[in-house]
Task: inverse folding
């Protein structure tokens, strides 16, 4: 039975979460959301963050009776709600009818119908007449509100902001407008736009983590301070996490367009030696041209020598396809395949790590989480090699004293050298993986200047 609330029509937003709609309905009736939700029977409890706060990206699945009840309360036909709410019929597979009772089930929005973000409150007010908080399913390439100059933040993170102000960054809004044409080009090329975007974002996000050591990078710091309200210096680590996607969005769109450009693929082919295979050079034409297209002529060599990253992986796939040496369909000959280790970290994940690190230094970011996957095997192997001589030394107990001492010192020296090499690899990979240089210096109790010099030596030794 539909409760007598004095019916007030509450229209859904396009791709809104059902949970968000229920909250807006409750606000229209002047009640708390939990009071309105009491009209349904719930299979589980509302989802919360580790700290106990309610999750803004929480979603609800309803059975048929539950959907009928919601339609009656908001005064909107079920077929209209079905078109607007992506999770509308998802409950049918999860919930069975229980004597016609309205039943609900809590789920995380991202696991139901894709990424979830806050809606622009000004757009919500324009559509509904009330500037209430709303949460919608929105892909990562549709986060800039062009009308009001706002970057809409992901709703899965435990942080209070709903948007970032883009009014001083017209290039980000312009990039949002350009993305539509890039997506159409991807479709014409037979590539899924979401995969092209994911690869481009992974490439740029990797540069973002390295950019703290790029003295010539001036564009991103300016944008970051802008979205932080003028100065991000007071909480730089947090703002680098919260502001990253907005700050780098123009470069992501530019990289996506470059990767779709057949002329750029030809440069990759030429850099590889075409018919005469060779290693990709540090001064290759592709990376040089890519840097120019991004307004950073100096970026080419840095991108070309970032071995193990998603850009080099894409170039390798392009070359293999061109040479016709790829195997059966799979990641190795699919340029748009993004390996798991190359996927960019989400804002929610990074904020969780940052929070743990602040509560208990050293606990939030273990080296395995900070180091790129392709480096972990090398580091682990180096540590194992360092341990072997030490294990062998346990049996060195006989012979002349001088000879035993010499063998002990030789073994310890060899192990120390291997451990130092492993340590350098770990530090270099941690910095490249996004851990701030100052943070790594604090881990190892070393001045930043000394650590910076050792990292340069480590990169040289490792060919970086």
Result:
């Amino acid at each position: 039975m539909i409760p007598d609330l004095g019916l007030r029509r509450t229209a859904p937003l396009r791709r809104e979460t059902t949970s968000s709609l229920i909250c807006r309905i409750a606000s229209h009736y002047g009640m708390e959301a939990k009071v309105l939700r009491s009209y349904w029977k719930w299979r589980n409890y509302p989802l919360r963050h580790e700290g106990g706060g309610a999750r803004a990206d929480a979603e609800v699945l309803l059975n048929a009776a539950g959907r009928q009840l919601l339609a009656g309360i908001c005064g909107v036909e079920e077929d209209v709600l079905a078109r607007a709410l992506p999770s509308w019929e998802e409950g049918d597979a999860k919930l069975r009818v229980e004597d016609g009772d309205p039943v609900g089930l809590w789920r995380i929005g991202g696991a139901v119908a894709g990424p979830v973000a806050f809606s622009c409150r000004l757009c919500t007010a324009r559509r509904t007449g009330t500037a209430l908080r709303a949460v919608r399913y929105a892909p990562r390439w549709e986060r800039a509100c062009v009308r009001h100059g706002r970057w809409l933040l992901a709703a899965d993170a435990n942080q209070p902001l709903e948007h970032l102000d883009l009014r001083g960054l017209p290039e980000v809004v312009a990039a949002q407008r350009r993305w539509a044409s890039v997506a159409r080009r991807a479709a014409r090329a037979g590539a899924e736009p979401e995969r092209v975007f994911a690869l481009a974002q992974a490439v740029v996000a990797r540069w973002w983590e390295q950019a703290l050591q790029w003295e010539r990078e001036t564009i991103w710091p300016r944008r970051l301070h802008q979205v932080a309200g003028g100065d991000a210096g007071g909480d730089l680590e947090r703002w680098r996490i919260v502001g990253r996607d907005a700050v780098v969005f123009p470069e992501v769109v530019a990289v996506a367009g470059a990767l779709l450009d057949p002329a750029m693929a030809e440069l990759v082919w030429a850099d590889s030696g075409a018919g005469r295979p060779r290693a990709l050079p540090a001064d290759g034409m592709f990376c040089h041209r890519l840097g120019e297209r991004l307004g950073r002529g100096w970026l080419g060599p840095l991108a070309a020598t970032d071995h193990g990253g998603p850009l080099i992986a894409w170039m390798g796939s392009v070359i293999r396809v061109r040479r016709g040496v790829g195997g059966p369909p799979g990641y190795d000959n699919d340029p748009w395949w993004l390996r798991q280790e190359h996927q960019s970290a989400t804002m929610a994940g990074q904020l969780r790590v940052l929070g743990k690190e602040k509560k208990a230094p050293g606990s939030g970011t273990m080296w395995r989480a900070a180091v790129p996957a392709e480096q972990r095997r090398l580091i682990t192997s180096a540590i194992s090699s360092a341990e072997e001589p030490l294990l062998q030394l346990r049996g060195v107990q006989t012979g002349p004293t001088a000879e035993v001492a010499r063998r002990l010192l030789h073994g310890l020296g060899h192990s120390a050298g291997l451990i130092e090499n492993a340590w350098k690899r770990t530090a270099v990979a941690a910095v490249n993986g996004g851990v701030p240089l100052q943070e790594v210096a604090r881990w190892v109790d070393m001045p930043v200047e000394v650590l910076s010099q050792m990292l340069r030596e480590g990169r040289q030794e490792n060919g970086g």
In short: The radius of gyration is 27 Å.
